[in-house]
Amino acid sequence: MKSIYVKLVLSFIITILLSVVITVVVTTFLSKQKLEMRLGQDMVKMGEDFIDLYGAEDSDKAARFLSNSSFIHFSFIIIDDQHEEKLLGQPGPPIPITPQEVDQVLDGKRYSNLNEEKGDRPQPNVVGLPFKENGRSYALFIQSHPQRQFSVIQDVQNIQLITILLVGIVLFAYVSTIIIKPIKRLSTAMKVVGQGEYNVQVEYATNDEIGLLTKNFNQMTKELNKIETMRQEFIASVSHEIQSPLTSIRGFSAALKDDIVSEDKKIQYLTIIEKESTRLSQLSSNLLKLASLDSEHQTLTLQQYRLDEQIRHVVMALEPQWTKKNIEIDLDLSNVQMEADKDLLEQVWLNLVTNAIKYTPENGLVKISIHQKNEEIDVKIKDNGIGIAEEDQKYIFESFYKVDKSRTLKGSGLGLAITKKIVRLHEGAIRVESKKEQGSIFTVTLPIQKNRTKKDSSV
Ligand SMILES: Nc1ncnc2c1ncn2[C@@H]1O[C@H](COP(=O)(O)OP(=O)(O)OP(=O)(O)O)[C@@H](O)[C@H]1O
Ligand SMILES: [Mg+2]
What we know:
The chain is an alpha+beta fold and 459 residues long. The protein contains eleven helices and twelve strands. Bound molecules: adenosine-5'-triphosphate and magnesium ion.
């Protein structure tokens, strides 16, 4: 994984190297030569201007010309045809020229040592210009002092620094944009999520920290989207579950208002109204239970009690239902002492045994057994009823999921969702093995002692 840290360091090094290379190219091959050329041209121009002014009548002007501060780093030497030297302007080191070179200038040729290879030792730059005054030949030599050459080197260095700075800024700004772009994209997406739109995915190509962050962000929005869909489905299911009993209550009450309904029918209609009202009240208490189990503040009231006795008690409470269907109940309950929230666990056995009876035809068999292994117990509730197809098994623990949607077997589809939540609050597990038309086995595994170091509400 290439981290942002590595990327930043690498891009910094590359930026510096590139700017140095570009700078070296620019200054070595362009600026240095140009600067020397410019210096030479300046010196020639200076000489020409000086020659124009030089003369008996303009000597004052020429003197003023040389007193200008631009010439403080230059020496002006005039040599006549008799090789008489006259120094004007600032004195400097002796001019490195041979008498032959003086003669050449006196003969009308210009002289310059600017393009010559000057060797290791820095030599002053010299230009020589011929001119005539009152019919006599003169040679004007202008020499730049080392300070002047130093200032040329300084100019080169300044250009180098400015180039490094400019190239560095441009390259680094570009690299930063590349690094910052995905962060900006992520930030925009977060804003959208903050406004309640969860169906957002951000593309990412890198494997660095931002790539990882984007991957996690996408995972988060996917989950949020799933929760939002579940919430909407939940509301739709609740409305549907409330709506259907209310419709039948409304219908039968309207019929009862007509006097034409016989006494027998009246009793039948009233019984239906009573049943549907009970269903509504059960639904609302189940919804409340589900909400309270979901709440973060759900805590368990733990107590030591006999599990086998609790199950026996639940079976006895459901006697009217299993005797009505002539279902045989086979109990294999060893003496087990456990610590749990007694009321909540009672709800678990009630839901599972009710289902076993509800989804087993008449004359069926329901077996309930407890198996202890080390610090855990398995409670198995086995029936030889209608069974659950494999494709339905993964959904039956979800709220409102019913295999038989036709409502022939009435229920709200909340029993197993509540059961699973209670089991998980006890740090246990529930699983189902089932074959259609052959029966089902629900196995609940629970710790005998709840681990007190963990938070009770952790699910
Ligand atoms: N022992 C079982 N045999 C066959 N199917 C079962 C069994 N237990 C549960 N199911 C299937 O799983 C679905 C969900 O069960 P759950 O207990 O959550 O809801 P319900 O029994 O329909 O309604 P509720 O328990 O809320 O009154 C049931 O509708 C049923 O289709
Ligand atoms: Mg049920």
